[in-house]
Design brief:
Elements: H1 8-38, E1 54-59, E2 78-83, E3 87-92, E4 97-103, E5 112-123, E6 131-132, E7 136-137, E8 143-147, E9 152-165, E10 179-185
Antiparallel strand pairs: 1-3, 2-9, 3-9, 4-8, 4-10, 5-7, 5-9, 6-8
């Protein structure tokens, strides 16, 4: 028996089929390689640290409070005036914190200076709003100004009240008081 002979037309058909097969084989291999590349993963470690944050700032300083005829009442010894021109801002991520205030001068003046936190705005989802302490007469001993500021940020207006006695006379030269606000454990 004689092997079959291929016509020229059959040879071209075979070559075309062979080329198509090779192209399909290359495309399939390339697609598998691309698909495998999409599945390659790498991992790494990210070390995260959130440190203790305690921030306190005061804007609107220095404060000036003057007692003059507009603050005096005939027949009364005590004269008062207030100033609410500053803002105290805080931020802390620690729980159970408060703000204290103290006069840091060596000697107390012949008048009374006090402060009260007003217009309190607290951004806090855990502890509730900051709480103003009762009006603080400033002295050489730290006193609570705001409590319940743990894990929060916010602001308030320190309202300063100056009280002087007419019987004490003129305060001269005009003294300067240095106050320190501190965030500390409650």
């Amino acid at each position: 028996m004689k092997p079959p002979t291929l016509s020229a037309e059959d040879g071209h058909t075979m070559k075309r089929r062979h080329k198509i097969f090779l192209i399909l084989l290359v495309l399939i291999s390339l697609g598998s390689w691309c698909f495998a590349q999409g599945r390659v993963t790498r991992s790494h470690t990210v070390n995260v640290s959130v440190n203790t944050l305690t921030y306190l700032s005061i804007t609107g300083s220095p404060v000036t409070i003057t007692i003059d005829a507009a603050n005096a009442t005939a027949g009364e010894d005590a004269m008062t005036n207030t100033n609410s021109s500053t803002t105290l801002n805080w931020a802390t991520n620690s729980s159970l914190r408060k703000v204290t205030v103290i006069v840091t001068d060596a000697a107390l003046p012949p008048y009374q200076l006090s402060v009260l936190a007003i217009n309190i705005a607290t951004l806090d989802q855990i502890n509730g709003p900051a709480i103003a302490a009762p009006q603080v007469t400033l002295s050489l001993t730290a006193a609570d100004f705001l409590t319940n500021i743990g894990r929060s940020m916010g602001s308030c207006t320190p309202q300063y009240t100056l009280t002087a006695l007419a019987s004490a006379g003129i305060v001269s030269p005009n003294p300067t008081e240095h106050l320190t606000f501190t965030i500390q454990a409650q």
